[in-house]
Amino acid sequence: MSIPPSAPAGKQRRAQETRAKLIEAGIALFSEQGYHQTSSKKIARRAGVAVGSFYNHFTDKKELLLTIHKEHVARIHAMVAESLAAADFGASGVHGRKLIGAIIHQTLRLHDLSPDLHRQISALVYSDPDFAEMGRSEEAHAVEQIMALLEAHRDRLRVDDLRSACQVVVQAIEAVVHGIKIFGQPEGADAQLDALGDMIHRFLFRD
Amino acid sequence: MSIPPSAPAGKQRRAQETRAKLIEAGIALFSEQGYHQTSSKKIARRAGVAVGSFYNHFTDKKELLLTIHKEHVARIHAMVAESLAAADFGASGVHGRKLIGAIIHQTLRLHDLSPDLHRQISALVYSDPDFAEMGRSEEAHAVEQIMALLEAHRDRLRVDDLRSACQVVVQAIEAVVHGIKIFGQPEGADAQLDALGDMIHRFLFRD
Amino acid sequence: MSIPPSAPAGKQRRAQETRAKLIEAGIALFSEQGYHQTSSKKIARRAGVAVGSFYNHFTDKKELLLTIHKEHVARIHAMVAESLAAADFGASGVHGRKLIGAIIHQTLRLHDLSPDLHRQISALVYSDPDFAEMGRSEEAHAVEQIMALLEAHRDRLRVDDLRSACQVVVQAIEAVVHGIKIFGQPEGADAQLDALGDMIHRFLFRD
Amino acid sequence: MSIPPSAPAGKQRRAQETRAKLIEAGIALFSEQGYHQTSSKKIARRAGVAVGSFYNHFTDKKELLLTIHKEHVARIHAMVAESLAAADFGASGVHGRKLIGAIIHQTLRLHDLSPDLHRQISALVYSDPDFAEMGRSEEAHAVEQIMALLEAHRDRLRVDDLRSACQVVVQAIEAVVHGIKIFGQPEGADAQLDALGDMIHRFLFRD
DNA sequence: TATGAATGAGCATTCATTCAT
DNA sequence: GATGAATGAATGCTCATTCAT
Fold first, then answer.
1. Rounded distance, CA C72 to CA C70, Å?
2. Which chain A residues are within 8 Å of B120, Cβ to Cβ?
3. Residue B199 clears pLDDT 60, i.e. is over it
4. Which of D120, D191, D200 shows the shortest C-beta gap to C127?
5. How far is the CA of D123 from the C1' of F10 (A)?
6. C37-65 per-position pLDDT tens digit
7. CATH code for the domain defined by C65-204
8. In terms of CATH architecture, what is D7-58?
9. CATH topology of domain B66-204
10. What is the distance between the alpha carbons of residues B195 and C77, in angstroms, rounded to a whole number?
């Protein structure tokens, strides 16, 4: 009779499992075959679940992908927060060029998580309003974070409009990392990353 | 003897007209509704021709969009060539910051041509291998052009690896311009463009 | 606990009904209009179900016809087995000519089941590899059966290579029966069947 | 002004050439891809001719195939007539078994001409009334010919109803040859042909 | 919640045929 | 006769979604 709230009953646990299987299947199929080539039927089949169950958990495949992406972003934010805490980039002694390099490196690492899925989502950012909105808010988040980071080095910065500067920096990093990780040109990657770091450093720091 | 080569005979002219109508309809629909929401039937209807005629001229809608884009790119290259010839950016007297500003401005203008179509193609660059390849080659072209432009100012440049520098610069410009023209944030656009120009200028030029 | 395995639950029963309706419609249309003139849409309409339902049950119309034919062949094999058991053709006292006559008669009866469908399948045996394969295996089956039948009369046979003899016999019977049942020349049918029986009898039996 | 009737003028000759090219293309495509997979457009393309030209010469692809087949049959009849004249099978001294063997051999040879085309036509004999009619008349022709051949050996024959006997014989030969040439089982072919010859010989000849 | 059969609009594509040049 | 662009009905098939069990 008494169901402990912290340990969900069998029915609830089963539902959670179904949901998890659908998410996993969605990640696999969206990555392998692309968003438009993936149908709810395929997802259900891959998850080993009935089509109806798919619609019990998600209104359509777009919602599934948004869900997947949100969880992905949450995990990334956690990773970033952890990295920042560990590295203590705020310490005023850190050299500017090193800080920039660390930021770039961080971005690179984030793209290692699931580059194929990322590629599909990037496509939707261009073609679907909901994903476009998501992309904007993620970018804004990144801008806030970098601004906070640079705040500690205020006196060594040579830019007046820090927000605009950070927007441009974030977009430049994102673009170069995409070029490397999504369009996959490993040749010249290191040289490009060096150039990127130099560019941003000279832009932001007085010296 | 009786067929002037410059004025194509009736059958050929009619074919060209149909082709033109299909291209126009394709541009309109791809821009308005997006690539995946546009079907060959819709295109034919909008062009005022039969479905069969669509397939007489193009193997499928992808080929139509590639054709459209290729013509678009050709027009852009022509425009750029013309601008370069007119402005004489090679003159060694031109100030570096001004040159960068001009390049950015040029890129901005190109995106005014048909931003909605551009947005759809950008999506496909992420999700379709053929468009990805096209994107790569266009970027390479832009890099070549900027390298040629900077060659005239060699002694005032502070970068060693000019190619990597130009790749990063091209990607940064493209990213910021996309943010403004495609995701449409006019607020702060000018500030961002200034920041972008400053960043590139400080990166490339000794002073 | 509560679902009797012998009486399928509602969903399953409904599916079986739909399947049955599709098969029936397929038989009717393939017979009336021929294989190539029959489309999945027509079949679905005739069966009173949606096109999608057709594809829930069969991958395409070829699979439907193969299914129909397999069930048909299974029924025929059952009939033949029954006839053989009833008639006791193995009894050594049976006269050779009578045995041959019985085999021919049996083949004739099989062709009464659905001659129009049989005609369509015969066409496909010539033009489609899958049906060709099926035709081969059915012929092989018939050869085995007749060989088994003749084994009991070994000492009265005048052929050495029984397998080759049976192959030729099976093909001859099939050909003549087709001439009568499929190309429908009732005039002279009896005379031809007599001739066929005599031919085979004189070929196989010493007397 | 005066056009020699035996040497057709340029226009007529060109028409004949077009027709010939279409026939050749038809033979190639019907053989390679099958009747239903071949379209008038494909035929015209293969012939290096406009679609319209196809319809100038034939009402549809069926008429083309009928034409092809008729010419084919005419050539075969000529071959057979020639063979008969050369071999003098009528000579009363010829042994019956040898005669039968020669007839079978002749049939085999005819099937070497274009087995793939023959296969396609055989399919149509089952599925199309016009081809069925053609098949019937060819068979009747073969029956007449064999009857004429056997007439010379009347006194050595043991059958009363010669027509029915010949019908059965023709069908048996055709069936076994199809098994070998069209369904291609070279293993056992010789044994089957021997059996076939023995069967017919024992059937028709007193000794 | 879970199931999976049913739905029918929609899609990409082909085809035989016409007809103005 | 020759041409080949135009036609639009038809084909095979997929899809997101519903709903009775």
1. 5
2. 126-127
3. yes
4. D120
5. 24
6. 999 999 999 999 999 999 999 999 999 99
7. 1.10.357.10
8. Orthogonal Bundle (1.10)
9. Tetracycline Repressor; domain 2 (1.10.357)
10. 85
